[in-house]
Description:
Elements: E1 2-4, E2 9-16, E3 28-36, E4 39-47, H1 58-61, E5 64-66, E6 68-73, E7 76-81, E8 89-94, E9 97-103, E10 109-113, E11 132-134, E12 137-141, E13 146-148, E14 151-160, E15 168-177, E16 180-186, E17 194-201, E18 204-211
Parallel strand pairs: 2-4, 8-13
Antiparallel strand pairs: 1-2, 3-4, 5-10, 6-7, 8-9, 9-10, 11-12, 12-16, 14-15, 14-17, 15-16, 17-18
Amino acid sequence: MHINPITNKIIVIIKDPLTFLFLKALIIVITNITILAGYEVTGKLTFGLKLDDFIQDDIDLHQPYDLATRFSYLDYYSQRAIACEYDFNRTAIINGNTYLIYKNASELISIDLNSTVKNFLEFAKPNTNESENVGEYVRIPIKAEHVYGNSKEELLASIYNETSDGFIETKAYLITGDGEAYLDVHNPNNLDNETIIDVAIGTKSKRIKMTI
């Protein structure tokens, strides 16, 4: 902490990175935190968050979280949600759980866990241009910004094209490993050409139109 002799402002730099990178590159500039003895206090906060420490049961795995901060000085403290000036979103898959951090309707920062409020696959885009057939599965890379852990999560899915008799109920797997993520969609009838795949994560479903 130091005082700028020109502007007469106290400048506070706070850095408290925790384990597991999730909020990397999210630099939250907090202005006008408080007025202390005639000085305007500003701060720059960089931090990481490991939600696994707070997840206790299945309910915790399927709900959104709002971020708040608590600042204290002597006997004074201020607690508030973190406001966000710019629209943004960041995606991550950590130990099989999907995370979306975004600016919510109240212009505050929220984390949606396992596609409870937002459709994760609308933000972590399936890259159908680089898809491939692996046995009876269609493998589609997922463009998540951060991937950690080795996991394989089973998802509900369906697949259809003009040669099938309606949608075929099947399964998909969200797989992570070596910093990469992809969907493996079971294609039991070996459908090809123009095809529609529906995949559900949490309470949200994503329709994928692609050529197999």
